[in-house]
Design goal:
The complex is a heterodimer of chains A (about 120) and B (about 350). Chain A has 7 helices and no strands. Chain A is an all-alpha fold. Chain A has one domain: Four Helix Bundle (Hemerythrin (Met), subunit A), CATH 1.20.120. Chain A starts with a helix and ends with a helix. Chain B has 2 domains: about 140 residues, 3-Layer(aba) Sandwich (Rossmann fold), CATH 3.40.50.2300; about 180 residues, Hypothetical protein af1432, CATH 1.10.3210. In chain B, helix 13 packs antiparallel against helix 14. Classes of the chains: A mainly alpha (about 120), B alpha/beta (about 350).
């Protein structure tokens, strides 16, 4: 893998080495799955539900997003979405309200890195 | 032996997850996918033998993983098909519930390749080994049963061969012993005479009936095959076939271990006794004569009269029945006669077929 891409992804919060290991070294799959992350509707669904005040409706997309982040070795985003799911499930609006901006910030960071690698 | 499947079913709503697992296992297995619990369950129910393992996500739309597991368990599939939960929900309650429902293992998400590969490979191998072993045992069992059946058939064949050889000397076709066997069996299974006698015992008695005349091998040709009536001296010799038969059977050690042995000796010795005590060799009377010896005695008389024998021609059926009824050919237990007449039509049909 090109060093430039590796560094850019790492800057985006993606633990590239762990991800490659999970994908048995397949760079093709890595590219495919990261691009898929960009088009996955769950992040949009989470934001929409949250803005609409629909916390219960936010649980499912948050959960799926969390699973995806874990699989794609987005370490920080995985941790944040994990906490967000717990807060939403517990109905803890305040905690969720503090987490949402962090999740959005980390999401944008990862997404920008991916777009920069494969414009 | 049945084909052993090499396909893993991945049930997960997340395409990336399915892709990761497919990539992990595609070198060693075929991988099939389902996008939710309901689809996964349907695929499994269509043919559980098509899969060697199921990897099941927990939180899914349509039907969640635990519900799929619950249904599989209710139908007993988790015994034959290893199911793994691949889940981020490694909470205590979920795990406990899953193991209670027969899940093989719970593997945390995001997956670590070598962990998930090792765990799944060893379980799949275990199930395969168990199945191979089960197939071998099943195969061996059916082979043993087949051999046992062959031995029993051979046994019966040898006994029939012996009896038939003796009959041949007597100028018979070989059908006599077979008919005595069938009449004995019919009287014990088709009338109240057999009440309290198990079907296994009936088989042994019928087998023993085949040997009722083996003692005739000790009777000289001149007497055995004499066309006319026997002199009193000749008849005395002829009568010894009962005792000779029982003595012969006692000298076959293999027969002594057989369940038919006691029936065979009894029948050989006593199939010429009479209900009124006027028979031979022991002059037994009434119930002193065993039921099976009585049955063979009557069957023997009926068969002799119905068929053409060396010393006489066959008689019409009505004449035969009248003779038996009127006691012209021996004295029989009234209860035995009643049962006999109740199935005589069926017995007579046997002769028509020949």
């Amino acid at each position: 893998m090109e060093e430039k891409i590796r560094c850019r992804l790492k800057d985006g919060g993606i633990a590239v080495d762990g991800l490659l290991e999970r994908l048995m070294g397949s760079e093709a799959l890595l590219e495919q799955f990261l691009k898929k992350f960009l088009t996955d509707p769950n992040y949009e669904a989470l934001c929409r539900a949250w803005e609409a005040g629909d916390e219960a409706g936010a649980v499912a997309p948050a959960h799926t997003l969390k699973g995806m982040c874990g699989n794609l070795s987005m370490t920080d985003l995985y941790e944040l979405t994990g906490r967000l799911v717990l807060a939403l499930r517990a109905g803890d609006r305040q905690e969720a309200g503090q987490l949402m901006p962090c999740v959005q910030r980390e999401y944008r960071r990862a997404a920008e890195a991916i777009r920069a690698c494969w414009p | 032996m049945g084909m052993v499947s090499n396909t893993i079913l991945v049930v997960d709503d997340d395409g990336i997850n399915r892709g990761i697992l497919r990539n992990l296992f595609s070198a060693q297995y075929e991988v099939d996918e389902a996008e939710n619990g309901r689809e996964g369950l349907e695929k499994i129910l269509t043919g559980p033998e098509a899969y060697c393992a199921v990897l099941l996500d927990v939180v899914m739309p349509e039907m969640d993983g635990l519900e799929v597991l619950r249904r599989l368990e209710a139908m007993g599939y988790t015994q034959r098909l290893p199911v793994f939960l691949i889940t981020a929900e490694t909470g205590d309650a979920t795990m406990k519930e899953a193991y209670r429902m027969g899940v093989m293992d719970v593997i945390g998400k995001p997956v670590v390749p070598y962990v998930v590969q090792r765990r799944i490979n060893s379980v799949v191998e275990l199930f395969r080994a168990r199945k191979r072993l089960g197939d071998v045992v099943e195969q061996q069992q059916s082979e043993l049963l087949q051999q046992a059946r062959k031995i029993i058939q051979l046994n019966q064949g040898m006994i029939e061969a012996l009896a038939t050889a003796i009959e041949f000397r007597n100028g018979e076709s070989g059908g006599h012993v077979k008919r005595i066997h069938d009449i004995t069996s019919l009287l014990l299974t088709g009338t109240e005479l057999g009440s309290g006698i198990s079907s296994r015992e009936v088989e042994q008695i019928a087998l023993a009936s085949i040997m009722h005349d083996v003692g005739k091998i000790a009777i000289p040709d001149a007497i055995l095959n004499k066309p006319g009536r026997l002199t009193p001296e000749e008849f005395e010799v002829m009568k010894t076939h009962t005792i000779q038969g029982a003595l012969m059977l006692e000298r076959v050690p293999q027969l002594r271990d057989s369940e038919a042995y006691h029936y065979a000796c009894d029948i050989a010795r006593h199939h010429h006794e009479r209900w009124d005590g006027g028979g031979y060799p022991d002059g037994l009377r009434g119930d002193e004569i065993s039921l099976w010896a009585q049955i063979v005695s009557l069957a023997d008389v009926y068969d002799a009269l119905i068929c053409k024998r060396v010393y006489k021609d066959a008689l019409p059926r009505e004449t035969v029945l009248d003779m038996i009824r009127q006691g012209q050919c021996g004295a029989f237990n009234p209860r035995l006669l009643q049962s006999f007449f109740s199935v005589e039509e069926r017995i007579f049909q046997m002769y028509k077929k020949e």
